[in-house]
Sequence to fold (546 residues):
Amino acid sequence: MHERWYQQAVIYCLDVDTFQDSDGDGIGDLPGLISRLDYLARLGVTCLWLNPIHPSPDRDDGYDVSDFYGVHPDIGTLGDFVELIHQADNRGMKVIIDLVVNHTSDEHPWFQSARTSPDSPYRDWYVWSVEEPSDLHQGMVFPGQQDATWTWDDVAGAWYYHRFYDFQPDLNMANPDVRAEVDKIIGFWLQLGVAGFRMDAAPFIIELTKPNDPNPPKDFDWLTRFRERLSWRRGDAVILAEANVERDELVKYFGDGRRLPMLFNFMLNQRTFLALAREEAAPLVQAMAESPTIPGSCQWATFLRNHDEVDLGRLVGHEHDEVFAAFGPDPDMQLYGRGIRRRLAPMLGGDRRRIEMAYALQFTLPGTPVIRYGDELGMGDDLSLPERDAIRTPMQWSDQLNGGFSIAAAKQLRRAVITGGEYGFEKINVASQEHDRESLLAWFQRALHSLRECPEFGAGQASYVDSGQRSVLALVGDAPGGTMLALTNLAGKACTVDLGPQPTQEGPVREVFADRAYDPPADDLTGLRLGAYGYRWLRLRETLGR
Ligand code: NOJ
Fold:
């Protein structure tokens, strides 16, 4: 239906080093991932998003890059990477990678050179201050783990700026040489066949940082120029950007369709958790009403969980407390004073009905769905691991050694596999779910394949209809080719919805997907039953040939 592939994609985010180890060294690798591509194709994934794959000291799970032009030797070679692109392409799948150019690792040769002398050609690639900056203790992203954004470097004899951890010095994007290098980096990976990038920390990349200025101006024009160069290299390349910013600023990132084509919808994510906690649709209706209108060529990306904490920082005080109380009551489940470091299945008490409902909801919200590896199995978390590592445990493939992730000795694994209890690999794994038509994995396969028949949801014009029930979200997705209606009951109590005929409706109403077998829907959309945590996807119109 849509020319732009990213408006109808299903994006699957994974970390190569915890996905599948093929050589028994305890670390997942590219050949291992290649051997699992058929699994992903069968699931219904159309695009992979790989968390950082570059050489790195791995102090921030690869988001501390020490060479932008390579692949971490632990996961393979550039040859393996190109083979991955080729094999994914054979299965109709695209690959995007993280673009982490706000900062480098402090072990990057550029920083090592920059710190040694003010005359280094790389000195001005970073942000320095000879005097102690007055904003030293402002703007930290990881409060509790990080207490400053400037750190004194004895070797340099100066302070350097780091928006994130102190081992991640920020690049100076005001320097034209740094900008030229970023162009070279994207050119390199596009040439190797990536379909685009997930842009890490977009708001910080464009900040024109100076000492003593905690709120520096942002250079949005850089995003326009960046997009132009990207599109010249590969016309259909996408940027999926991380920009968790205020509503009024969001539109500047889209820039009339000339800047970033796709942004994660962080506001919708937070309001979804509030809606799940309250078992009420109102927070979702509010989020959609507050989402700015975006240009036709642009798209939101929806997500429930990602590789970071659930960031609730944009909810107001009592809303924030409600979500904490419902899904992360123990201090150990909380992180940075604003988030929850858990996977979705344990947050929802392992309740299959609620888990399905939450994903059915995500898939019908405006935007392209992004899912996180293992969520299709209902994998759990390991709170004994530090910070966000709790949700970064190895993929659980079978009930064999190390969950089929690796044949290495357990102590050699990059991260321990979740063992025992409700979420251990013995119970939750691909092999057992693949043979079970009632499994969560089988449900994901059906849901994602059904979604392909309903492109109106993610990419159409979304509008909210009053369902008359506080717990039910009624969403209409309208596009030239058809109209879909999604009904989602966020509460554990069955109900009946009387919507009445909808303006864009045409011909008989047809049930496409639902949590159970319901009586056929009436064409006037009255008397529509919904079970506890039930959902129904109804086709209201199909215009063939459009
Ligand atoms: C955002 C990433 O999502 C997060 O995982 C990382 O720690 C920071 N950026 C720093 O790169």
